[in-house]
């Protein structure tokens, strides 16, 4: 079988390519160049010259063809620009979800078709059950959360060989066994790739000039402190306010006035959310479901899911929880899991 493997230059995709080649498949390695990194090989993001070189070395070592093409404009438009636009409005979009659903998976699918490959494989830690995304065996590395919005028709042609690997140590051991020493000990990437090893604040400073603003108590309307810019905060996070006698949590961000409304932990709790861009499997509302509202978040049992009254296209839904949940931020994905760890849909939190 001809299989296209998305190669990042890391150990995960390298092992995927080696496993498939070992199993007798005709494998092609392919890298989407998404960034023009400004920090050279010291960057902790992706798409450095070293990453591409490492992917090429892996493909040479296992004896497969390797291709790389530039998708920077698409990535910037679909992912980075959306993230920045959201930040300017106080909305914390998850760019990894958007990247997978609008860039990586569709591009790999299209390239596979062009090369007449029957399947596509990536180094994601996830599984596919009955045509739907499901959690990986390695829960510590599970990436099913980031894949909830993937087109089901595209998923029919995808495989995730690392979904059944118990731990990252096992993945690294496989890399050693295949002789892929150039990547077997390579560090995992952390945070968003377009931060290039920097912080969220450093990235956003390039797009949203920092300016001193006010922390305002939501109950009293009184100013209780100052901050260096609303873009550093999202609803649900703890606000570090100098001199505060009790913990304060962000309730709402007001970009127009550069104010951050804060309150107690109890004030930050919610029992329901409205989601948009919803994509929920038919009949899912009638089975036990758990909602996850951030990567590695604690699953919250769902009480009910119902259409938002007055929504003309039924893309907005009200999701009610069985108990109060905390740390809810507009823009984040709410992913719905069933009892068998299968993803039954999700949506983007609106309010």
Question: How many beta-strand segments?
Answer: 18
What is the class of the largest domain in the CATH system?
A: Alpha Beta
Q: What is the CATH superfamily of the largest domain?
A: HUPs
Tally of discrete structural domains = 3
Report on the architecture of this protein.
The chain has nine helices and 18 strands. The chain has 351 residues and is α/β, with parallel strands linked by helices. The chain folds into three domains: 2-195, HUPs (Rossmann fold); 209-267, Adenine nucleotide alpha hydrolases-like domains (SH3 type barrels, Roll); 269-349, Elongation Factor Tu (Ef-tu), domain 3, CATH 2.40.30.10. The strands form four sheets. The chain has a six-stranded antiparallel β-barrel. A five-stranded parallel beta sheet has the order 3-2-1-4-7, with helices on both faces. Strands 9-8-12-11-10 form a five-stranded mixed beta sheet. A hairpin with a 5-residue loop joins strand 17 (333-337) and strand 18. The protein starts with a strand and ends with a strand. 42% of the residues are buried.
């Amino acid at each position: 079988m001809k299989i296209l493997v998305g190669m990042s230059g890391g150990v995960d995709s390298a092992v995927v390519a080696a496993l498939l080649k070992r199993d007798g498949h005709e494998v092609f390695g392919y890298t989407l160049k998404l960034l023009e990194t400004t920090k050279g090989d010291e960057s902790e993001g992706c798409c450095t010259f070293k990453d591409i070189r490492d992917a090429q070395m892996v493909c040479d070592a296992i004896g497969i063809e390797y291709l790389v093409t530039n998708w920077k404009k698409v990535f910037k438009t679909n992912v980075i620009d959306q993230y920045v636009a959201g930040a300017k409005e106080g909305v914390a979009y998850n760019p990894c979800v958007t990247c997978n659903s609008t860039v990586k998976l569709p591009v790999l699918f299209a390239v596979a078709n062009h090369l007449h490959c029957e399947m596509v494989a990536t180094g994601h830690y996830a599984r596919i059950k009955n045509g739907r995304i499901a959690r990986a065996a390695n829960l510590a590395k599970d990436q099913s959360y980031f894949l909830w919005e993937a087109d089901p028709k595209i998923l029919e042609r995808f495989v995730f060989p690392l979904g059944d690997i118990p731990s990252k140590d096992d993945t690294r051991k496989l890399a050693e066994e295949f002789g892929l020493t150039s990547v077997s000990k390579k560090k995992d990437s952390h945070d968003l790739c377009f931060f290039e090893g920097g912080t969220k604040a450093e990235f956003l400073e390039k797009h949203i000039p920092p300016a001193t603003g006010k922390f305002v108590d939501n109950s009293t309307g009184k100013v209780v402190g100052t901050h260096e810019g609303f873009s550093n905060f999202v609803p649900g996070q703890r606000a570090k306010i100098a001199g505060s006698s009790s913990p304060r949590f962000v309730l709402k961000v007001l970009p127009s006035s550069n104010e951050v409304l804060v309150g107690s932990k109890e004030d930050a709790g919610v029992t329901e959310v409205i989601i948009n861009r919803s994509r929920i499997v038919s009949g899912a509302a009638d089975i036990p479901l758990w909602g996850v509202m951030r990567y590695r978040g604690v699953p919250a049992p769902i009480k009910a899911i119902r259409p938002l009254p007055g929504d003309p296209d039924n893309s907005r839904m009200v999701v009610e929880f069985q108990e109060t949940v905390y740390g809810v931020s507009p823009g984040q994905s709410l992913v719905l899991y069933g009892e068998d760890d299968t993803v039954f849909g999700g949506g983007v939190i609106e309010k």
